[in-house]
Design a protein that fits this description.
The complex is a heterodimer. Chain A is 70% helix and 7% strand. By secondary structure, chain A is mainly α. In chain A, helix 2 runs parallel beside helix 5. Chain A is elongated and about 50 Å long. The termini of chain A are far apart. The relative contact order of chain A is 0.17. The model of chain A has no long low-confidence stretch (mean pLDDT 91). Chain B is mainly α. Helix content of chain B is 65%, strand content 2%. Chain B contains nine helices and one strand. The longest helix of chain B has 21 residues. The mean pLDDT of chain B is 88. Classes of the chains: A mainly alpha, B mainly alpha. Chains A and B meet through strand 1, helix 1, helix 2 and helix 5 of A and helix 2, helix 4, strand 1, helix 5 and helix 6 of B.
Chain lengths: 76, 219
């Protein structure tokens, strides 16, 4: 029997956000647009609805987003 | 998932000169070899970047192995970029758009290599939640109630939803790794996870525990 302590982080992972969100394919299609909006200081959250909620709930997409943001920022 | 990914589609801004050049050259039949070499070099740069960022996940890879992996990622990313060129709509720089293909290839490979050979517990059985420590008696009672409610709600999921939910959120199995093991796609798994989470939230609301949902969301 595996026991897991229900801390706040696990609770968030189990429940996700109660908000509309994109799927992984839609996220991939739009992440470059989202990243460049973030770099410009635009309202990326409003420009790509559902992206932030997906990134909060999908660690793999969140990793890829973080890397694209870092790489695009490095390009200037 | 019911969100319209693009509730309205704003017109893209005018293309920057560099992106314009990429599109013009790649539109030629055939694209110039020099253009494809430059594109491959761009994707290789992104793959190397990602593999460096994730090197702690693959500590046993030496420099030569990492470089071979980066080239593999860039090769596959090049094929994907050329196949999906028509999907570039100019809402970002071409280089940003192209980078994501290499980052995806590298990220998936890193996660799969890191978990290669590891046993996955994906039956959805043989687990239990334990209440977190809380300072007051009332909070401890609320925790116990939440744990009981969650365990009941998880038990009421379909076997597939339960297996996916527990593997991804409790056991921390990367979604690409689980997709490979279950011979399905990342998107299909995320849909199952999304549906499972929605059912859990619905069950907790029905049990009169919306405050805990709000706290989880605010966390």
């Amino acid at each position: 029997m595996t026991r897991r302590r229900l801390d706040a982080a696990l609770l968030r992972r189990l429940l996700g956000l109660s908000a509309p969100e994109l799927g992984c394919e839609e996220c991939f299609e739009l992440v470059d647009r989202y990243v460049e909006a973030e770099l410009r200081g635009d309202d990326a959250y409003a420009l790509v609805p559902g992206m932030a909620a997906h990134l909060a709930g999908c660690p793999a997409c969140a990793e890829e987003h973080a890397s694209l943001l870092a790489l695009a920022r490095r390009d200037g | 998932m019911s969100v319209a990914a693009r509730a309205f589609e704003p017109a893209p801004p005018p293309l920057d000169p560099d992106s314009r050049r990429w599109l013009d050259e790649l539109a030629r039949r055939p694209p110039p070899a020099e253009t494809l070499e430059r594109l491959h070099a761009l994707l290789l740069q992104a793959a190397r970047f990602e593999l460096r960022r994730r090197r702690s996940a693959l500590p046993w890879l030496d420099h030569d192995e990492r470089e071979r992996l980066a080239v593999e990622c860039a090769d596959d990313a090049l094929v994907a970029v050329l196949a999906r060129r028509a999907s570039y709509r100019g809402h970002s720089r071409f280089t940003t758009w192209a980078y994501k293909f290499a980052l995806l290839e590298a990220g998936v490979r890193v996660r799969r290599l890191a978990w290669r050979g590891r046993e996955l517990s994906i039956s959805g059985e043989g687990w239990a939640l334990v209440a977190d420590q809380a300072p007051t008696q009332q909070e401890r009672a609320e925790q116990r109630e939440l744990v009981a409610a969650l365990q009941e709600a998880i038990a009421a999921l379909t076997p597939h939803q339960r297996r996916v939910l527990l593997a991804l959120t409790v056991d921390g199995v990367p979604i690409d790794v689980l997709a490979e093991r279950l011979e399905t796609t990342r998107g299909a798994l995320y849909k199952a996870l999304h549906d499972a989470r929605a059912r859990l939230r619905e069950q907790l609301r029905a049990r009169g525990l919306p405050r805990l949902l709000d706290e989880a969301a605010a966390g």
